[in-house]
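Reminder to self: tokens first, then the designed residues, so the page reads top to bottom the way the pipeline ran.
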């Protein structure tokens, strides 16, 4: 299947939800509305010609003032049967940092979503155990946000002498 066929199948199934798409050197990317993430992912997983059976990665990007929505949550999927991949991106507002969890569809989303919550502060609705995974529970803030102060002292670290 060509790269554009993967994108076209998603666009055909969800014509009003695809905001942007591109294919470059075998890299397919589709930007969709966050309200449809669970439906789109269920489709790319269950559709036999797509068969995205592996969630390779889930991360976020903080664009701060460079885009209308501050964050993007980025998902990378792979089909072991068809040897193709697709990237899904969803824009997320700073005021509404809540995205549906993919844990019911991919167990590997559990730790990926906890990492994004821990480092960016984006919450995942329906996550079974959304708590910090890399930092301790008393840590204040989310250190991969662009506005996180680089010299901020944390409760367990204490003041500089």
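Designed residues (161 positions):
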């Amino acid at each position: 299947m060509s790269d554009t066929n993967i994108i076209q199948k998603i666009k055909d199934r969800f014509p009003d939800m695809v905001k942007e798409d591109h294919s470059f050197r075998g890299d397919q990317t589709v930007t969709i509305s966050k309200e449809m993430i669970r439906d789109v992912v269920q489709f790319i997983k269950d559709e036999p010609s797509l068969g995205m059976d592996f969630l390779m990665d889930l991360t976020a990007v903080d664009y701060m003032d460079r885009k209308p929505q501050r964050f993007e949550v980025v998902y990378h999927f792979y089909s072991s049967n068809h040897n193709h991949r697709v990237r899904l991106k969803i824009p997320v507002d700073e005021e509404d940092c809540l995205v549906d969890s993919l844990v019911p569809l991919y167990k590997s989303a559990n730790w990926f979503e906890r990492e994004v919550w821990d480092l960016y502060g984006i919450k995942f609705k329906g996550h079974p155990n959304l708590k910090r995974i890399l930092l301790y529970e008393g840590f204040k803030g989310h250190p991969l946000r662009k506005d996180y102060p680089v010299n901020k002292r944390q409760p367990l670290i204490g003041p500089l002498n």
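Helices lie at 3-13, 37-46, 109-120.
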